[in-house]
# Entry
Amino acid sequence: MSAVINKIAVMFIMMAIGFLLGKLKIITNEGNKTLSAISLFLVSPLLSFVSYQREFSPSIAENLLVTLGLTAVLYAVTIALVMLFVPKKRNGAAIERMSLIFPNCGYIGIPLVQSIYGNDGIIYLTMNIAVFYILTWTLGVSLMTGKISVKQTAKNLCTPAILAVILGVLFFVLKIDLPDIIHEPLQAIGDMNTPLAMLIAGSTLAGTNLINCLKKYKLYILSCVRLVALPLVCIAVLFGFHLIGADPMVTTIVLIAMACPSAVITTMFSHRFGGDSVYASEIFAVTTILSALSIPLIMWIFTAIGVPTGM
# Structure
């Protein structure tokens, strides 16, 4: 548990540096968008792809399928609960539903899992991220626009994050190893993920009025649902899979991903589809700050009920 707390502390120090750079306008709004694009379209996909550069193992292949199945089950439960908790006709329902359903498994989940498990953990987290992007570009778009286009959805699903996982799995199964002269630069770029993601998250927070956000009680209610209630439900489900022999590393990684604060993609979608981007940013800001406390709490509860973490 102390290892998790230490890793989160390190991440939040990086985030604080990003926040300071944002406040000083060293990272401007345009600069933040550029860094986000680099992270989204290059660094994170390369990290995912390179994590599959390892000797093929039937146990790893089996755990990948288990991770995919667990993630699908937890998202199904999360979606059902959120749809019940947030009435469709309520003002801001689309923003709230997206913010509660989708955790920041990329900017927060990847750095945390990488710092704890290294690439051995990232390979499993990629399954969670793939499901995340499939759902955001289908259900997420539907929530924000009230409609969905099959043609546009198919186009949207061809994201670097999903393609990286597909290529990584193919290389893994077909036992294709990259030569060192190619592998090393790709690995080096992928290793930029944690500091880059934290700088982006911090500079994004700098663009919100944190003092004003922290005065809104509604944001605390949403934060409790996103950071505590839903992860507790996930713990209950994962405990059942632990009892039937699921790999401890897999269950822990899936829990970390689902316990993350609200995803920044909700704010991006709000800009793109004409939603309330300010409200989305406020939820992102408050849940991100409070996650420094909630993630260690959730992990402590997970271990307290007797589930090993594989750390």
Notes: The mean pLDDT is 87.
